[in-house]
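New to this. Help decode the following:
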Amino acid sequence: MARRFAEAGAQSEIGEMLQVSLTRLAQGLRVDRNFQESGCGVMSLSPAVYVVDDDLSFRQSVGLAIERLGLRAETFATADAFTSSVTRAHRGCVVLDHHLPDMTGLQVQQALRRKRITLPVIFVSGHANVTLAVEAMRRGAVTVLEKPVSLHHLVEQIFHAFEVDRQRHAERLQRDSAAERLQRLTEKERQVVDLLIAGRTNKQMAAQLGLTLRAIEDRRARVMRKLEVQSLAEIVMLVRDAEASPPPAPRHAASPSC
């Protein structure tokens, strides 16, 4: 009965949304369903929308809209059910209610961050305000929407969040690849990298490490080969990528009416 009610309530808006926006969104923001493997061996799952809300009718109506768009939806009634099942391999985005029975949406964001999960979060709340919007987006949410949420607008935000997720995933693969290459170096080879980045010449490194110039040249050549780079500039970029923190979400307009 609840599902039939949700379907009936969402039917007209979904139909209009499909006619007006689906073609444009699907063509411009096509979902990559391929599995990809990062340099550290973490397999990424095909993208999905994870709806976390204790309101059954909201979960069902949003899930129905997502499925009608040909996307995969997974729904959760509690924060714990969601945070205990999601991993770094999950792709897509989260539609997250701020007022959950077991924790707030902000606490869910913290839990995801502790697990180094960078899924973009779309906050929804029946009591959204500027304070919540600022704090949620400071912690990486892509937007904050006030209930009742227009399905048309929510779907646009979901496709935007999928784009954010693709960007974050590509950057994570780059960071993981850089970190994996740096791990190939011995401690002495990493010394050479640090000195190169500090601007030391081969002659200066030889004097500082008590080695011959030929030994430094040989060690530097091994570093370049292991890191698969051709120049000092590439080494600097690789170290920067390996040490980079997960990027914050790009700012997107929050829409609480307050």
Remarks:
- Residues 1-11, 17-43, 247-258 have pLDDT under 50 and may be disordered.
- The chain has ten helices and seven strands.
